[in-house]
Structure formats: structure tokens, C-alpha cells
Amino acid sequence: MRSCPVCQSIQSHEIFKMRFAVPDDFVIGNLQSVRSCQNCGMIFSDAGKMQEAYNRYYASSIKYTADLEGPSEIETKRLEHVYQELAPYLNANTVILDFGCGGGGLLSLLARMGQKNLIGADPGPRPKIATREFDFAHLSLTEFDLREFKPDIILATGVFEHILDLQKTMDHLRSSLDPGKLLYVQVPDASKYECGVISPFQDFNLEHINHFSSTHLMQLFEANGFEIITVIESRSPHTANYLMPVISVIGKRSKQVSPIARNSNSLEGSILSYISASDRRLDQILEDLEKKLGTKSEVYLWGGGQLSLKLLGTPFFQKLRVMRIIDRSPTTRTINGIEVSEKFTDLLPDVPIIIASTLHASEIQQHILGLGLPNPLFQLFQG
To answer: How far apart are CA 44 and CA 49, in angstroms?
Structure first.
């Protein structure tokens, strides 16, 4: 059983369990047990896997490093939101290392803002814009040494929610920074999951396995020798119609280590409310689809993301014959034996297409209509 990523306690209890459909070559597993630490109250997921499985997954994933047509308008706004938080701590000579840099979007923005000393570090493939705009180090998220770069600040945006063995990561991040240098971390705010249930269980997925409140992120910093400089709770652009609650913490490497406070149970209460709201939303989606489909049992699914994996894991979808999952940027060939492909020209015209997204449903529908496909289109119920 996984220990708590914040306080390392092995005492926890399960508050929710979810089974996913997964790609046939998936290494992490298809079951997530969401647990509450009985010592500090941190919420985390346990898939029964070791960090090595996650290392293999992220090392082979092109999802975060794919060279597409550049960042979308929304992604650009998200990166600008990060920059606004960082700007007071930067000058022209600041050495910035982006830990888990993905495709290098944040570093590219920093370069445009005049920053010259930039390094990206990631377990995935080397971004094409590396070398041109920044140096690059290939690494594991839990085994690395970045001292050679002498960073003034290490950034980790959208990274800590993915790491199984956070203690190892914090140990190496601390040793990579000289005393007084800074660590900036931004994660989703789990205490506010219940405030924006657009897609059921959108924050419980196969990759997000740590669910922080600001208290728990601060405790992680302080227990690992970082003095808190600032804590920012804000909303970051996520879609055209949704601002995601996020927490940003900036800490300075220090000699002092603070003990972890005891459990207040406040985060567990918020998460349980979120689970109830997500359950209701998923039931509404499946009941609505059952009415729309009537006697039809064959469907196409448009989109191979996390919501598709949740839908395909339900008894309702297991009764359907999903003939293909269409995805514009497929990262796998099959999910539960179902073909995943960008192909759409040979679709049977009478078979309905279910748009497997709530966050981007309107844009996807407009894209499909623009392709001239005659298939019936079903959006998921959004209330």
C-alpha cells in the first residue's frame, strides 16, 4: 500500500475506488484507490504500482511534448498566468530551470519575455525548440541531479500531482538548489474540486495521483527544508469557459525543517462532496445517453482522453459496441481492444458519434460538422 506523499504515514483509509478502461499497452494499471491519510489528511491515489512504472510511462509519453501548431490561446493564457506570479522573483540574469517542462511552452514564453538563462528538464522526448531557446536535460522525475546548472529558481507547474514518490523528488530538488534559492510549484487546488464539476471525476484520473490543499503543499515544502515565501490561491485558464482553481507556493531553501501538523479532515470533507457531485453528473450523462441512443447499440466515440477511459469503464458502455475511438492526436492504438485512430472518412453514416468531452464539446462538434460527416452527433449531458 502506498504511503502518504506528504507525511509518509502508512495509515490511510479508502474513500473512493474507480476502474478505468486503459490502453492495451498501459503500464500503470486500471484501478485507482483514492485514500485519505489518517495522520495529516492528505488525499492521494494508489494504483498498486511502483514509481518505476510511472517513470516508464512518462518517459515514453508524447502527450506532453508533442510538437503541435504551437500553444492554443487558452494554453498561452495559462502560461501568462504563471509568468505573472513568477515575474517579481526574476531579473535578466536569473537562471531558471523548468522541472517537467513538457514541450517547453513556459520556457518559450520566458524567452520571449527576455529571460536568457533557461533550462528544461523532463523524462519525455526532447522538445524540438530545445537548443534554440533553452538547454535541456533528460531525467527521471525521482532520480536526478541538477546542481551543474546552478539554478536560481526551479519551476514545477502541473508536475507534483503526477509523482508517486514525492519524497525522493523533494530530496533531489532541495539538493539541486543552493541555500536561499527558490522552488516554485503550482498544482490543482483539491479543496475546490467540488466548485467546478464540469466533467465527472475530471480531477481523478490515471495520472493525477496527489490531491493537494494549500495546507498540504505548504507542509510538503516546510517538512523538506523550504521556507515559505508566498502562497497564491487563484484560478488559471483551462478552457474558454472554465478557470481551474490552482495553488502556487514559492519557497526558499533553508536549514529549518518543520513537523507535519495533525489531520484536520477538512480536505476529506471537500473531496467527499466532490465525489457525490461527480457521481450525480455521471449518472445524468449515462441516463441521457441511454435515452438518445434508444435501441442503437453501435457507436463511435470521438476523443480518447480521460473521460473516455471513465465512460468505457462503466457497465453501460460495456454493453455497447464501440466501433472506433477517433482522436486527432492518438497516443495509443487500442483501448480495451477498441481501435484508436484519427481516421474518420470510412465511418458508417448511420452509427452515432458520441463526443466524449464536456470541456471542449462545442469546439469538437463544430470540427466534426466542418468535416461534413452525416452521422448523428450526441453531446454528453451538461445540466
So the answer is: 13
